[in-house]
Amino acid sequence: MSKQTAKEVVQTKLDELLALMLTPVAFEIKEEEDSIEVHIESSEESGLLIGKYGKTIEALELLLNVMVKQEMGEWTRVVVNIADWKEKQEERLATLAENVVVRVKETGKEQFIYNLSSAQRRMVHMFLAENQDVETSSEGEGQERYLIVRPRSK
C-alpha cells in the first residue's frame, strides 16, 4: 500500500470531520509551495463552520494540522478558509488599524485594542509596522492580552 500524500490525508480527514459534524459542504484543496490550502465554499453551514469570532475555523485548522502530522510524520501547514472569511477578516482588521491611527493622530494619546486573538494582534502589528506615525506593542497575559497603538517617539 502506497503512502498517502499530505493533500490526500487532508482530503480524507476533512471528509471524516465534516461527516462527524453532519455538515455536507463542497471544498477544494490546493497544494501550495509551503502549505495545503482548503477552501470551503459558502453555504448555509458557513456560520457554523466559522464559529463565533472564527473559533471553529481555527479549531478545524488545528485538528487538520495535527492529523496530517500524525499521518505523515512531519509538519505540513494546513490553512482552512471558509466563504472567504480570512480575507474579510483581514479587511476588517486593516480598517480597524487605520481608524485607530486616525484616533492616535487626533488625540496624541495611545489607544488600546482589546479582544483580539494572537493572530489578529500580529496582523495589526504588521499593518502598522511601516507607519511612521505610530508604534505598537502588546501587553497582558492570555485572554487579557491587548494591543497598544501609540504615537511614535520622535
Fold topology:
Elements: H1 6-20, E1 27-31, E2 35-40, H2 46-50, H3 55-72, E3 77-82, H4 85-107, E4 111-113, H5 118-128, E5 134-139, E6 146-151
Structure description:
Helices cover 47% and strands 21% of the residues. The mean pLDDT is 92. The chain has 154 residues and is α+β, with helices and mostly antiparallel strands. The longest helix has 23 residues, at 85-107. Helix 1 packs across helix 3 and helix 4 crosses helix 5 (118-128). The radius of gyration is 19 Å and the shape is elongated. The chain folds into 2 domains: 6-83, 2-Layer Sandwich (GMP Synthetase, Chain A, domain 3); 88-151, Ribosomal Protein S8, Chain: A, domain 1 (2-Layer Sandwich). Strands 1-2-3 form a 3-stranded mixed beta sheet. It has 5 helices and 6 strands, in the order αββααβαβαββ. It starts with 5 loop residues before the first helix and ends with a strand.
